[in-house]
Amino acid sequence: FAAAMDLLEYQGKQLFARHGLEVSDGRAVTTVEDAVAAANELGYPVVVKAQVLIGGRGKAGGVKLASTEEEAREHATNILGLDIRGHVVHELWIEKASDIADEYYASILLDRSAKKALLMFSTEGGVDIEEVAEKTPEKLVRHHIDPLVGISADEALQVATQGGVDEDVREGVAGILVKLYEVWTEEDATLTEINPLIVTPDRNVKALDAKVTLDDNALFRHEESKAFTVKGAVDPVEERAKALGLQYVALDGDIGIMGNGAGLAMSTLDVVAQAGGSPANFLDAAGGANAEVIKTGVETILSNPKVKAVLLNIFGGITRCDEVARGVLGAFAEIETDIPFVVRLDGTNDVEGRRILAEANIPNVHPAATMNEAAEKVVALAKERS
Ligand code: GDP
Ligand code: MN
């Protein structure tokens, strides 16, 4: 299992720039005021670009050209907070705008079956490349790179020629393909993609977009790339959950789930599904279940607006159920929510745990003794609220 780490466009461009691959000057910002200041500093026109880990931002209204300060402000205001297919924009990249004569496509990905890097190039860039591959496959050049030899300038030039690149920019394109492979190998990337790779009217070639996936098993070799893990689109609540040792995976449904232990959390997903419910997440609270852990777990689950009801499924082993019950009370003393919680406590001191919960009599906390009972209850409660 190779863990992948996707970079935001501007982080990918930072890597590109480190390897001498030409990109436009820009600034990463998180507020409208900083966006406007960055635009003024760069000089107009600028492009205001949503930084989210999903493509097709242009079509979704996440990439806008601004010719004046007023436009920069308007676009920054509209794009910050924009939801692009489930990815909320928290960060913008303000870039000096480029004039475009041609839009090409270039990428290198790991072809696992060939055990080689696969370079793909097309002069039909700026559009969905899958569509090019499907409708006009002759316009997509595919070239495997031998890991022992790499790619020579000549080979890259052949790819550009085969792709039908105008003669005057072939060298420029070939140079970029060589550098794209350098980024791929030296940064331990599994994907480096430029779409569009543009030719400007004055016949300069540069990367207008960047999509980079790093192999995070190799991250120990890249001190500078580690910074990308803490920045970017990671949700602060999820980050805190991770720091406390909670394993959280977001799913599509509307029932929040938390269990102590991966096995229990997983079987909870199954039982909820069998009861006709649809899990919103997987959250393993690991061994511990003190107030801090439960509070963070509950906050993490509730940060997903789709959640209509939550099932806390705790099996008391080393963690005693009375401790867990106190943890739940501690968490609810600090969290304000009317979302119903079903709490199933079983195992060490479970009777005492359920008694503590019953006594506290929190209106939206429903104790349950068995997993099936808990699953049915939480599914019914979620249905009531939908
Ligand atoms: P994506 O939609 O997420 O792939 O975002 P891109 O960064 O590829 O931008 C989408 C489109 O916006 C590009 O294909 C360009 O057509 C356009 N675009 C982006 N930057 C510029 C720029 O500096 N100048 C011009 N004229 N168009 C741009
Ligand atoms: Mn693009």
Compose a concise summary of this entry.
The chain is built from 13 helices and 19 strands. With about 375 residues, it is an alpha+beta fold. The strands form five sheets. Strands 1, 8, 9, 10, 11, 12 and 13 form a seven-stranded antiparallel sheet that branches.
C-alpha termini separation: 37 Å
Low-confidence stretches: none
**Which structural class fits the helix and strand makeup?**
alpha+beta
Ligand inventory: guanosine-5'-diphosphate, manganese (II) ion
How many strands?
A: 19
Task: Give the % helix.
Answer: 25-40%
| Average pLDDT, all residues | 91
Most strands sheet: 7 strands, antiparallel
Count of alpha/pi helices: 13
What is the 3D form?
elongated
Comma- or semicolon-separated keywords:
386 residues, alpha+beta, 7-stranded antiparallel sheet, 4-stranded antiparallel sheet, 13 helices, 19 strands, 38% helix, elongated, binds guanosine-5'-diphosphate, binds manganese (II) ion
